[in-house]
Specification:
Blueprint (H helix, E strand, L loop, with lengths): L1 H26 L5 H22 L4 H28 L9 H5 L7 H36 L13 H15 L6 H11 L1 H15 L5 H25 L4 H11 L5 H9 L4 H26 L1
Helix pairs in contact: 1-5, 1-8, 1-12, 2-5, 2-6, 2-7, 2-8, 3-5, 3-9, 5-10, 9-10, 9-12, 11-12
Length: 294
Amino acid sequence: MELIIQVLYIVFPVFFVIAVGYGFAAFKKIELTPVLDLLLYITIPALVIASLAKQPIQVDDLIKISIAAFAVILVTGILAWLFLRVTGRKELRGFYMPTMFLNGGNLPFPLGLLAFGAAGLQAAVLYYIAVSIVVYTVGIYILKGGVGGLKEIFKLPLIYATVIGLSINLSGMNFEGPLLTGIDMIGVATIPLMQISLGYYLFSIKLRNIGITTAGVAIRMLGGFLVALLMVELLNIEGVTRKMVLLSSSMPSAVITFIMCYKYKLDSELVASIVAMSTFLSIITIPLLLYFIM
């Protein structure tokens, strides 16, 4: 009973903030693009630098988290490819996006912080970086039908924030002081902004193509968890890092996949449906998963 209460104390604040965003969308319509730009270009890079600079990183953990994240993306992509071939729906290229690319920020950041403290947040950030690199390279490649992709990652501050944060950490440089405090203050805004934005987006998304949507959700969440379970054993990942790899790999689909598919006019309604169903289902799966790993 004590563990159940502990899990609820972790999960409730996360979904409460998402619910605030959902409720806000019910009576007030706003343009979220400036908010997303603020996240992408200012607060997320600040969070990455602060998290990587403050908490000591084991290079071994960095490598293992990245390998595990890449493996989850690769295998879920293969499962999505097999599903489209078996069902004769090879034209649904957009299906790859929400099955391969998980919500690495809106949920793992606050869950990691509340459940496992600074170490949990740092592991979530490292996982998020690995996923983001693939989203803005392989993801763009998929959306464009096999053209381009690599240069997109260099247009985002994330890659430079990662280099700065890792350089400070691994060099042993003493970065404590007012500058880090200021960067940390900006980064702290990331978590509530991401959660509220997620809730706001969910309000306008409708479920469609239930059969294909359900398959996409199963590949993303169950497939991701099973691959992660195999990887933490193969790579001998232990402690908080193990727990965060399992947690992050089981997350619902990333909202950014819908935004990208909408931009490139590629199966955006189906993608939105998978994002919505997987996120609503996570209200059940996340507490169960936390109970399992804690």
